[in-house]
């Protein structure tokens, strides 16, 4: 009987492989039906596109996906040293998400050139592509976790995995720590040293905020209130938190802005115009954030450069051209994210913003 780790590994790999091939087959089948209708119900063109999709999936599976998974499983040196980005996510974006977005753009171009409008791509195929992308992201984040038993916030996780600690910090009182300088003064007093000018200068330093005085002052440390505190009673289950459940919530919130951008591309006035090209291109660029590990410091700047700033520009342009095809909430979110990133990253380092008299 296979072990639990083997079953979990097989489950994750089957889910990721299904997320790789199912969106391609669905999108290509819809595109094949579109080509058939454009060519006057030509079944030959339909089966050619279907055969091309089968050949593509077979080729990328045997030549790219399977070798990559084998190298990751065997933990080869050049792959085990990668800790700041995820090779599986990069391969998925190139092999699945990019072709699907390209087919969506091609379907719009074919219909515009022929002067027809067919309902070949409804909400289901596009949502399937994004849902598969989110599933791959979730499996990559939750892979270090166990699937059974309790797995609280204090559990040990891999650095590339999901480390979510969104609990509110509290102040914890620590004991006073004696410095080396203070210990030397104490030893000097015990050895019978005569206090003179050095000792006086030491007193003056203490009065001006020297390290010996600052370290003798009260120290505090931020800690999680979930640690060392338990809740019992009939409503104790309301206080329970599990990092595995928070991974699912975090992933869907992470991709919410991209989902809205792709939804805008599905609007008929946008889909059958030249604006579909920049919308899908920028939507794919935002998915490149998936390559970076969840808690890499680069993720914040990549989110502004690949998502919020480009999305702000394209949304303002879409509102000017087509009206309110997207809610105003999303461009406002992009504006706030860009401004706060610039302020807290760059402006707070200026001398004028480092004055303690300011709020």
From TrEMBL:
Endpoints of the signal sequence: none
Amino acid composition bias (Low complexity), ranges on this chain: 220-229
Transmembrane segments: 9-26, 46-68, 89-108, 272-292, 304-325
Residue segments, region Disordered: 186-229
Bias type Polar residues, positions: 207-218
Keyword Transmembrane attached: yes
Keywords, comma-separated and alphabetical: Membrane, Transmembrane, Transmembrane helix
Protein's name in the database: Transmembrane protein 236
Taxonomic source organism: Cottoperca gobio
């Amino acid at each position: 009987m296979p072990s639990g780790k083997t079953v979990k590994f097989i489950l994750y790999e089957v889910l990721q492989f299904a997320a790789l091939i199912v969106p391609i087959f669905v999108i290509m089948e819809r595109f094949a039906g579109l080509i058939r209708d454009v060519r006057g119900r030509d079944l030959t063109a339909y089966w050619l596109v279907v055969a091309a999709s089968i050949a593509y999936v077979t080729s990328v599976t045997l030549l790219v996906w399977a070798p990559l998974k084998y190298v990751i499983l065997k933990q080869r040196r050049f792959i085990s040293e990668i800790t700041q980005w995820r090779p599986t996510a990069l391969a998925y974006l190139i092999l699945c998400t990019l072709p699907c977005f390209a087919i969506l753009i091609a379907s719009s171009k074919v219909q515009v050139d022929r002067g027809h409008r067919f309902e070949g791509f409804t909400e289901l195929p596009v949502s399937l592509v994004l849902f598969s992308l989110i599933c791959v992201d979730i499996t990559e984040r939750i892979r270090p976790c166990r699937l059974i038993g309790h797995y609280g916030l204090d559990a040990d996780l891999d650095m590339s995995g999901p480390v979510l600690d969104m609990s509110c910090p509290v102040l914890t009182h620590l004991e006073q720590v004696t410095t080396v300088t203070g210990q030397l003064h104490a030893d000097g007093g015990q050895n019978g040293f005569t206090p003179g000018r050095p000792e006086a200068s030491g007193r003056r330093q203490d009065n001006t905020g020297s390290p010996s005085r600052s370290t003798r002052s009260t120290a505090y440390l931020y800690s999680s209130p979930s640690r060392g505190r338990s809740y019992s009673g009939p409503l104790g289950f309301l206080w329970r938190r599990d990092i595995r459940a928070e991974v699912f919530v975090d992933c869907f919130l992470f991709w919410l802005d991209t989902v809205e951008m792709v939804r805008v591309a599905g609007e008929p006035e946008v889909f059958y115009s030249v604006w579909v090209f920049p919308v899908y291109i920028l939507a794919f660029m935002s998915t490149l954030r998936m390559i970076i590990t969840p808690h890499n410091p680069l993720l914040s700047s990549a989110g502004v450069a690949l998502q919020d700033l480009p999305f702000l520009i394209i949304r303002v342009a879409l509102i000017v051209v087509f009206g309110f095809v997207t809610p105003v909430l999303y461009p406002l979110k992009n504006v706030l994210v860009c401004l706060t990133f610039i302020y807290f990253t760059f402006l707070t380092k200026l001398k004028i913003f480092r004055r303690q008299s300011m709020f």
